Write the structure tokens for this entry.
Amino acid sequence: MEKKNVLCIAGALFGRPFIQEAHRLGWNVHLLTEERYLNEAWERDYLADVYAVKDLYDERVVKNVVNYLSRNIKFDRIVGLGEFDIEVAAAIRENTRIAGMGETTARYFRDKLAMRMKAREEGIKVPDFVRILHHPEVKEFMERIPAPWIFKPRMGASSAKVKKIYHPDEFWTEIEALGDKQNAYLLEEFIAGDVYHVDSIVYDYKVPFASISKYGMPMLDLNTTGGIFTTRQIKRGSPDEKALKTMNAKLIKGLGLKKGATHIEYIKGKEDGEFYFLEAGARVGGARIPDVIWHATGVCQWHEWARLELSDDGKYKPSKAADMYGGGIFTLAKQDHPDMSAYNDPEVCWVQNKKNYAGLIIKSSDPDRVEELLMNYYPRFAQDFMAHVPAAQP
């Protein structure tokens, strides 16, 4: 029987476990990336071939390249592995009429305005927001919602280019500088609180697996003031876990994702204790989050996603998750090769080995023990490794 072909699109070194699992499942795996990433540590032994373009987000060029390759290769699936690859993959699927998530659904997982409007339509709480289109509408928003506000691009990952705005004059200065590009942004109510992330596997619009975790320092603060990244899974069966599982399942169905992996962020308002939807990605999370989940539960989101996308019979049975809790702590280090030997508690199950980075993953049957270790490690990491001191503790 002739092997099937999957084309993976990756704008950076990302998604290698997906590539490995696809190969293990018997597929020919082809990779399309950018020229600047050709020499990265791709799993060449698992790849049938690697192709590169100068700009992966030049839609016309990418479509032409895939059309040319398709003259001799029959691609049965196309998968965008990273945040910025979702729309590229969707556009190619639409052009080639290959099955999978189309551009409309992909937009809900890329465009922050579209995902907010759809979530609100589905009855899911979101921080109040306004599109940057009709200026009187924006002015009314700023009069109605007290500062600070969050000014953010509609497209993009994490907290890149996100700013806190404290005065209308500051906002209008930003808008004037953007000129015709201002519609690519939105203005949002700032809600203080703890930020959570839910990492899911989706099959037939349902969620057979979801890991509920909480960040230490919100990513917005981490990216703007610096600090140490921490995450930990919250107690299963707790009120917060139950509320987020329900909200997450409703949101995924509302956004129209039939199958795949998701990384979705929510915030629990400090004043009202309510959960609000923040961001949604139809992909596996970054920042070593999938590694924390894997070490704690035994479930690799990348492998599950590959099995979902590439199953021939359309049937999928999720892997059984272990009843453990995980946490992770990571920072940019001032040393080329940080010495992590002092962090030797029995719960430490993985230690980062990367130049100028310090990090580790812990797991325990007790979520309180995970939290205790993270709280203990944070000041030690700041003293031992961190290249700059954070503005505040998590």
Observations:
- The first strand starts at residue 5 and ends at 9.
